[in-house]
Amino acid sequence: MKVTGIYLGAGAGTRMGGSKLSILLGGSGRLGGSALEAALRSSLERICVVTRPGPPVDWLPASYYKAEREGRAVQVTSREAHLGMSHSLRAGLAAACTGTLPDAVVVLLADQPLVTAAMIDRLLASFREQPKLDYCAAGHEGVPKPPVLLSRSMFGSVEKLAGDQGARALLSEPHVFGMILEEPESRRFFDADTPEDVERIRFFIGNVHGI
To answer: Which of 155, 152, 150, 118 is closest to 137 using CA atoms?
Structure first.
């Protein structure tokens, strides 16, 4: 069973006042690289990292370049990223479907640095056990959140997304069958939209092991 990661790192960082993925979280680790390292530690077969046009990306970790040399990771430029998340997601899906069509993709957000490899692997294991699922999402208190696995049956719906719609917009459609894997630690879903968010994330990285 082939499952590819789509790592969305093409956001404008408007609420942060500009690009945020280069922000240092601790040591030499940057905001945009943390969840990517988790994805690279997971069982995902391949990872497509979606970025914006412009200067070279400086937040990719060393592990990304190793995976790129091995053919397990690729950087994809979304030239329409400024038009909304749906364009980045579609660019990632197109790259994921190059060559052999995957059975599913896992959508991850670059500004959620507390996501772990174990969370991703739980999605993969659940899908392998129930391959007829349209989606399998992480979640907290019954609310689905990224990362989310989308089966091949959902690819057509992804192509129809518009503007700033993301994968979550697809999960409530009446014909869609999926499941939510409860994550007891709500902090795993913290995203870095504001300077205050970044400080909160730095606190947890500095005080909790196993990030």
So the answer is: 150
Distance of CA 47 to the CA centre of its chain: 10
Give me the helix-helix angle, 62-69 and 31-41, nearest 10°. Answer: 50
State the pTM of this model. Answer: 0.93
CB 106 within 8 A of CB 149: yes
Spatial contact of 62 and 93, defined as CB atoms under 8 Å apart:
no
pLDDT tens sequence across 133-147: 999 999 999 999 999
Sort residue 203 into left (φ over 0), alpha (ψ -120 to 50) or beta: alpha
**Distance, CA of 72 to CA of 63 (rounded, Å):** 11
**pLDDT tens per residue, range 15-67:** 665 678 999 887 668 999 999 999 999 999 999 999 999 888 999 999 999 99
Pairing of strands 104-109, 143-151: antiparallel
